[in-house]
Amino acid sequence: MDIDNKVSFPDLLGLSETDPEFVALFKQFAFQEVPKDLPFSLDERRYYLATLAVLVGSQGLEAYKEILPVALDNGVKAMEVKELLYQAVAYLGLSRVYAFFAPTNTIFTNQGISLPLASQKNTTNQTRLEAGEEAQNAIFGDQMKGFATKGEPDVRHINKWLVDNCFGDYYTRSSLDYAERELLTFCYLYSQGGCEPQLKGHIAANLRLGNDKTLLIAVISACIPYIGYPRTLNALSCINEVVNAQ
């Protein structure tokens, strides 16, 4: 993975003149040492998708605006970015994703990408619950069958929403497959912090879909410059716990 000199961040923030030593330190670590030392060679597309998801999860809007144009020039498609944002709403809520839409649309327009993009919807109001259950079963296993009707009566509606909204509305859409969507979900969860129970469940789902331990560690390693060490180490602990329990 060659990302050295492709990412202008943080030059466009004016830091090269005011904080040249920091810029040199950050660039050397983030764009030279990190790619060189990764235990798994991440392709550029997955690197940038993971980075964008982590920046959304950690509310790194300014860095996101720096990275997105570079991502679009290095294998990430506009449709994939929109799907990344749409799906993030299920795990972060609109309040934390809303601010990313306008800058994304501006960058798309500046690059000659016409909006709105083609529809990626594959369900209707009548089919989203059934399709969501199919997606949930494919990702987590047959033990999820009937999840929408399980649980205590006062919380059963949330289980239904997880099936028809989270999985039926988002995971069934085109452009990204289940493994790619689960990797994004892993990034949303570990980067926002405080979601370790859900993170462990989605680590298990990633492993089930072929996103192995080496890949997950490569992703959190590559994103350390943007997310820092504490949440990275929390994610690593969760990965090890899930893998060791299997």
Automatic annotation (TrEMBL):
Carboxymuconolactone decarboxylase-like domain mapped to chain residues:
20-103, 160-239
Protein name in the entry? Carboxymuconolactone decarboxylase
Lyase: is it a keyword of this entry? yes
Domain of life the protein comes from? Bacteria
User: Does the keyword field hold Lyase?
Assistant: yes
Q: Per UniProt, which keywords does this protein have?
A: Lyase
Enzyme class label: lyase
Organism, by scientific name, is Streptococcus anginosus
Which PANTHER family does this one have?
4-CARBOXYMUCONOLACTONE DECARBOXYLASE FAMILY PROTEIN (PTHR33570), CARBOXYMUCONOLACTONE DECARBOXYLASE-LIKE DOMAIN-CONTAINING PROTEIN (PTHR33570:SF2)
